[in-house]
């Protein structure tokens, strides 16, 4: 019985760690898609960029881990601003199909660029000695890195939730998601709001991509390989929600991990079945608005 | 500039894209079609292999007979057999190549092989090792890579000789994994061992932790693992380390794919003591290997590390060059095949190799290697050599 | 749709008419065949003569045009956003492939079987996905295809799993024309099947049923109010589209002699969507422009630049969006109105 319990714990732990990465990457996608109605299939590009920056800084430049993480998130957020201004903004409120074409085009270009600069190989995450190895937590031994993932993910989720619930910026975002025209007529500078939200979402994706580069491997095809997972989290969570993607990510992480352990031959089948079932039950997702 | 002008420019650009760019070629030029998976899920081994092949061409182009040139027509099969087959058709019918080479994915090789018989164009498979029976699909196919059976079968035998009785096999669910599983299982059970569990991982984006947990719960003496070299190998090693599989008393045996030389520096100390059967190690103590490594570092930089795919690519080109030299650039498909079938190289970077004229598969040393620390860095040290192994599957399954 | 009307005018080589009379005239004459509609078929025949080395590519292009046409029917006419069209393509491909691998390699009957199997999958999945819309619908189409791909992967004893289906024996077409190395039979086979399917789709689109689909796409609420059975019509369109995609998959399977898991994959669904958008959605000819453009560009780029070709494809896509809307046909519209 003891070993069964330890196994269950280890699977749950692993699932949670994966969930946190999924959450960090997907929450920005949920807000931008919900608020701007923009089908952004290139969101994974920002996560991939975060992964390349973090692994590169750790590997070649021996930057301290927290600093490298902050640099990855910051650089991705900054870089996303001109992309939003120059490309995305033209298509707000436009044809969804043009959005698909633009964002897939960006995915192709960034994938080829990544292969050109970094080669086709997976980028190794060199954790500082203090973060590798395991930690005893009374009822078993867990990977320290996964503990860190869960801690950072949970802290950011709480911070984001409180921040957006309490702050003026958060209120503006929620207003814009709920009713864009009304928000505009109340004098909210939605253009600026879009840009800031987009940068925040991209920065979080960069953070998630960097932090999770051991669980979701950093390769040139990253953005396309993992698109389904990100979209599933957004759809289950409900467009434009902050809490939704968290719950959805936890659900996806746990179901994925459990399914793969109990019936490994079925692969990702459980995730798909769960998604289909959930969306039939609640077409707008768990926390969908409108 | 007005929007209309931009539109016109764009239209011009689109038109330009459609323009067919002819490729000039002189009469002395031998065209060789190179089909490789430059993009897609096997782009890592494709890249390593292509670097080895390109290096050989760069160094030995000057050795070709006077007036003879080669032209490599590189095509990306995007890791998709349907595309690979069409590219082979294009290369044969459109570009009139005299030889085909490359190919990482064995399903691509299986799709292309029948065409080589129809068109009478020899195919030198440089990187695909799975699909043990592929050379039987066409008399114009020769393989310089290896077969998975060639490594898995001796490993199973060796494991049984160590006195291990129980084994768990865990392989990626595709043709290479199946070959590795079958080869190991056959040799291990023939020698009296018992397989206590067998799992197959999904090939795309697998998460190894749950699988390693299952192995750990089954407590076998030896776990025989096969994952494709590259991305997945590192992830597998981390799962093994995270769950403490080896501390729980299970020995891990594998093919060289689990510890490719270029991935070793990314694996921490986890692989220390790991046993694998393979065809090539950077640590191989042979003069030809030392020379190869020196050239590699000169061409690709000190940080770049070749692996067995690189040597396969190198050897494939070496065989093609030897044939061109021997025929002075004038050969038919049958003459080329006759040369390939009897080709041997006593001093490849991986040791002595030769093509078996019967099966058109390679005969080579299989090394039992152990991961150890040399000068503070991990290396696959060759601890035992099984000389000149012929593919065991074809011996066990003769053509009726 | 002003844009579509002006294209129609362009197709008829007349100056864009204006006003009510012209609209009525265009409406009444929309299903008559125009001389310019012969252009794709003449181009295909010309390609056969001029580029005999490109027939294998040509056959793949023709089969993919059919696939894009099927996507246009759901996306452009029924207004269903799908990222799962490969579900039907793959079903058709595996149906034809399995038949040919197990002793029935007759190609034409293989096509019919593929169409039937794909139509069945279309009806069943349509019952699920047509209840929702927007992102939810997109995800559902995607998940249906992903589940089928996963199932095909797991049933590796039947499908060959990740290694693909091996050992297909496709019999000669009409008992005479073998599918050879040079792709001549494949080219004409695909061309003929595409032509027949195009005639059918054209008829459907211009029928009362087709017009009610357009109505549903433009304003499904109003169509409901008019008493149109919206979901049922959409389901019929979805099923027809699935059958066409299945035929396309079967064509690729039979002419390449191979079926792989990627025939059910997201890449396949996404690429066909992109090719269609590049050409222009909802105008029947987008497929005939987008597919050749994309596939020839890919062939050229990847010949010159075998490793990084998809950077240029991506750039092409971004430029298209930045400088024009509505794909290449939209671009033509704009140029025409200027000139």
List strands and helices in order, with pairings.
The complex is a heterotrimer of chains A (290), B (400) and C (339).
Chain A: H1 2-36, H2 43-60, H3 65-86, H4 96-118, E1 134-136, E2 141-143, H5 144-166, H6 168-178, H7 180-185, H8 190-211, H9 222-225, H10 227-237, H11 243-262, H12 269-281
Antiparallel strand pairs in A: 1-2
Helix pairs in contact in A: 1-5, 1-6, 1-8, 1-10, 1-11, 2-3, 2-8, 3-8, 5-6, 10-11, 11-12
Chain B: H1 3-18, E1 29-36, H2 43-60, E2 69-76, H3 81-93, E3 99-102, H4 106-119, E4 123-125, E5 141-143, H5 148-161, E6 166-172, H6 175-190, E7 194-201, H7 209-218, E8 222-226, H8 231-243, E9 251-255, E10 275-278, H9 287-300, H10 308-327, H11 333-341, E11 344-348, E12 351-355, E13 362-374, E14 377-389, H12 392-396
Helix pairs in contact in B: 2-10, 3-4, 5-6, 7-8, 10-11
Chain C: H1 2-11, H2 19-28, H3 39-50, H4 55-77, H5 86-101, H6 107-129, H7 134-154, H8 156-159, H9 184-205, H10 208-218, H11 220-225, H12 230-256, H13 266-279, H14 286-304, H15 309-323, H16 327-338
Describe the structure.
- The complex is a heterotrimer of chains A (290), B (400) and C (339).
- With 290 residues, chain A is an all-alpha fold.
- Helix content of chain A is 72%, strand content 2%.
- In chain A, strands 1-2 form a two-stranded antiparallel sheet.
- In chain A, helix 11 (243-262) packs across helix 12 (269-281).
- Chain A is globular.
- Chain A starts with a helix and ends in a 9-residue tail after the last helix.
- The longest helix of chain B is centred in the last third of the chain and has 20 residues, at 308-327.
- Chain B is globular, with a radius of gyration of 22 Å.
- In chain B, helix 2 (43-60) packs parallel to helix 10, helix 5 runs parallel beside helix 6 and helix 7 (209-218) crosses helix 8 (231-243).
- With 339 residues, chain C is mainly α.
- In chain C, helix 4 (55-77) packs parallel to helix 9 (184-205), helix 5 (86-101) runs antiparallel to helix 6 (107-129) and helix 5 crosses helix 12.
- The model of chain C is unreliable at 1-18 (pLDDT under 50).
- Chain C has 16 helices and no strands.
- Classes of the chains: A mainly alpha (290), B alpha/beta (400), C mainly alpha (339).
- Chains in contact: A-B, A-C, B-C.
- At the B-C interface, helix 1, strand 2, helix 3 and helix 4 of B face helix 4, helix 14, helix 15 and helix 16 of C.
